[in-house]
Amino acid sequence: MADHSGNRGRGGRGGGRGGGRGGRGDFDGSRGGGRGGGRGGGRGDFDSSRGGGRGGGRGDYDSSRGGGRGGGRGDYDSSRGGGRGGRGRGGDAPYRGSFGSVPYRGGRGGGAPPGDDTKELFFKVPGQNAVPDAAIHELENRVVKVQSLELDKRVKSAGKSTAAIRKMFGEYLPARPAFGDRGQNIVVWANCFSVAAKPVTLYKYGLKINKVIPVEEKKAKGFKEPEIRGRKLQIVIAKLLEVIRDAPEQALRDSQGHVKHTEQVLKAAQKSGDDQAVAEAQHALNAAKAHAAEVKKDSAAAKKSNKLVVSEFKSQIVSLEELHLSHNPVRVVLSEEALEDGAAPRQDFFDVELMEAVPVALSEVLNHVASMKVDINDSVFPRHPEVVDVLNMILGFRARSDMGNVSVVGSSRFYPFGSDAKIESLMVDSRPLLAARGFFQSARLATGRLLLNTQVTHGVFKLSGPATQIFQQMGMQPCRSAQNQHDARALKTIKAFSKCMSKARASVTFRTASGREVKRVKAIEGLVFASEMARRRSSKGPNPDRFEPGWELCGPGNVQFYNSDDKKYVTVKQHFENKYGMKLGNYPLFNFGHGDKNSYFPAEVVEIQPGQPAKLKLTGKETTSMLNFACRTPYSNAKTLVEESRDRLGHDDPLLQQLGVAVSKNLLAVHARVINPPKVQYSKGASIMPAFGSWNMKNVRVLKPGRTIKTYGYLNIKAGFRGQAAEDIDPNKVKFMVDNWQIMGVAVEGKPTFMVDIDKNVVASRLDSFFEHCKDKHAQLIIVVLPEKDSGALYNQIKTLGDCIYGIHTCCVVLKQLEKRQEMTMANIGLKVNLKFGGVNHKLSEDLDILKEGKTMFVGYDVTHPTNMDLPKNGGGPPSLVGLVSSVDSELGQWPSVTWEQAPKQEILGNILESHFASRIDLWLANNKGKRLENIVIYRDGVSESQFSQVLIHELPLIRTACEKKFPDSPPKLSIIVSVKRHQTRFYPADGQNKTRSGNVKNGTVVDRGVTQARYWDFYLTAHDALKGTARPAHYTVLLDEIFRPRYNQGAANALEKVTHELCYLFGRATKAVSICPPAYYADLVCERARAHRPEYAGPDDSASEISGSGSHRPAQTREIHPNLRNSMFYI
């Protein structure tokens, strides 16, 4: 830690990872094939792979979109760079020297992850072979055989017209035609445990919770019924469960007490000699005794029924038998110690009404999985969700109950924060964050059994512990107002710290006059900044708080408040010394007030509670550190699941057994196949056979060059580092890159027609005029040399100006990549440039069968939603963005796009889909003159299982209408396949012969049984070769099929798997197979670019929101893609 006398702090640790991190759009030479810190390796758990296209899809890094997409740029991204560099001198990593009285300590840089030799291992259980369940295998075969025979009859009887095919094959969620049988048969482990359940009937009760408020308060002006949520709601329901379990004993005590009371009344009546009173008292006593006898009789059964009660601690409880309650609503009392000596405890009262019991029969779901019988026209999916919800409630109850040691995020993620916590600091950018390892679990239905899908997951949380320790760890003290730019940057970082801690729960210790300590849990508003506090209304009225002049981040000695008891101003420091005898240190002060009411507490009495998720966007360094922590081999994850998850998640809890549920101790072994990769073809018929899912372009040229680039130039954004002056770029470095493009066949002519250098500090305000200058020169391409790869705000501004305002293609490259002069890096950038200008980089050597006639179009579309943002409850806020791409030729090399906005958080597309889909048909027809469009294969990205029916009910009719208007006599046949990356199913090698260098399953691994439902048509495909971490397969589910079954009959499963797999080798900017098929991948990139075009919608922690200068916030209509680029792959 830096000392407090203004000496230099520690600098960042150099030497990150070579090869770049994954970039977004065409962040060409710096960020690899996806967006680092955004989507890809993880929307969540950062446990996905880092290489091979999109690194295995989106991870589980809960509320952020973090994770890096793994590389997608040839095999360049397999270079992971050096290890940790040495400690720097302080400087701006984050800051060198002292700021006011705050010496800021630099964080440690990311570096490469520690060595993990477990990639050479594969998971195995001592004394047990990986053998799939033979009974399940046989049941799957029986179910699918019936479906295959039925399909054969339909194919033979179907007509050839589109109308006849739609009538015969237009059902929703078609039955699986067969299991695939192509490829090498292997066995793999799945991250699932079998669940046994008894066919019991459980009872589910909805809860209505109200806080008991005195009538006088309710009548007060402006009164609002308090909302019970968050931790308070959890505590109320936990107390409710205690009351319910104790209710039979309490009822027995109450009835016995009533008997004693009526006996005393009878005695008093007898003494009085009043015969009438005696008769009434005797009658009351008889009734009390009868009631007590009835209560006693029922108490045994009530004790049993009321004992077995679980909850998800939100809105429901579930019991094994119907509950016996003497009162409903149930009164729940929460008590806290009083702050005054001798006073009664502080109590809050809640009335919890239990709604009418809803029976939930586990037999229904057990019968379904045992038979898999679903009517052909029954499109209800998923099946029995209410039963699955109850199972999840039971299986997660023990972990949820342990509130002090387990942090529950969402409905399925559990992070231990007790003595067994697995955590790591993320304070590389001076924000109080840490990474934690936990578990995801969710019950799923499969053929013949119930499964518990369990996965190692990682999340980001706020730092916890005594505030004094946190401040010491961060090297943070009160400080004066900024005097220069260096101070301003440091102060900005301190405010980021405060913002991160805002709304965090903290335990505040109060000391009474007798010295007794009382703790209260309160929500932090933030640190005390004088400039911010002075703007509040509380600083304008009588006796406002006072702040010492010249100080910005205030400590206890810098803030005075009016003490009404002593009728004078005192500092916070004086108050705690005089009243409590506390000597306060020189730490920043906390404000626990709300709105305009301030409430100051020193760090000495504040302790941040553990396990609070941080809903924010990570910086580049934080993302790197998170990935280093979360990047684990399949062996490590499998071992953790088997050895640790059972205890952490409470799978051996006796309560589960009493409720008739048991979880297997062994991972699931399932059948899989490895299908062969296709050959890819370049110019002049040159064919290459991929190895390990990748290949290189040595001695080959792109299949088709795009339009000739005759007018181009570059913009060098200069920035000095570590006090050094910025230098102009060497033109030969740009020439080296362009020469490599020409060698690989990209059509670039001549020399740059303009070369401009702009300082980074002023570039935002000068970009508009620069693009105007390029427009006057009729520039076709602008090469933008960025000083560093974390240039999100600047990148967004460049892309908005190029894509939307001026219609000029832009290609961003980081200076470091130019300086390395690596031919492979230059070629990877060239692949993107060729696609932007309409070229085709490569194709399959053998065309897909469905493409040979040139009458098929592929479509992909996706929706991206605002993340890490507190959206208004009225439905306002940033829009969701739709990206739709489609193929225009049989080579599947060009995928023009269209994008539009819709309501926030709305996944299902609206009526405008019809016109946009029609525009894609028009574009296909324009590029395939004389050909008739007969088939449209659609990959719909990103919808959950619960939304499948919504796609079919709302989106499919719009697509059909668009097709019918274009082809009224014979519209194209349709197939819709949902591609999902955001799931938690993983597969681990079960032997050493079928694993990759990173310890993963081989690329081309397909799983369509063992973890699936035989009635429905879905499969998992690991198309890519994951270089790091655990590969995430893509999950494909067929919602509609009018193409593959009529054409291939029972071979439709093989045909669809082949098409999907080989599409993964056609991602244009990669020389490797990617993890998700290109229609869905490209649609995702379009959405990300659309988000970059709208910086005003950036989240509060998004650097894109920091854009300043002219042209940064243009009207919404200017976010339309410029006509010059509209039908190009500008987004790549």
Q: In words, what does this structure look like?
A:
The structure is a single chain. The chain is α+β, with helices and mostly antiparallel strands and 1132 residues long. Helix content is 30%, strand content 21%. The chain is built from 24 helices and 43 strands. The chain has a 16-stranded mixed beta sheet that branches. A hairpin with a 4-residue loop joins strand 5 (309-311) and strand 6 (316-319). The longest helix is centred in the first third of the chain and has 43 residues, at 230-272. Mean pLDDT is 85; it is low at 1-113 and 1100-1113.
Keywords:
disordered N terminus, 21% strand, globular, 24 helices, alpha+beta, 1132 residues, single chain
Q: Which percent range fits the helix content?
A: 25-40%
Strand content: 15-25%
Poorly predicted tracts of residues: 1-113, 1100-1113
Query: What's the overall average pLDDT, rounded?
Result: 85
- Termini separation comes to 44 Å
Radius of gyration over C-alpha positions, nearest whole angstrom: 33 Å
Largest sheet: 16 strands, mixed
Shape: globular
**Helix/strand/pairing category:** alpha+beta
Helix count, DSSP H or I runs of 4 or more residues: 24
Number of DSSP strands?
43
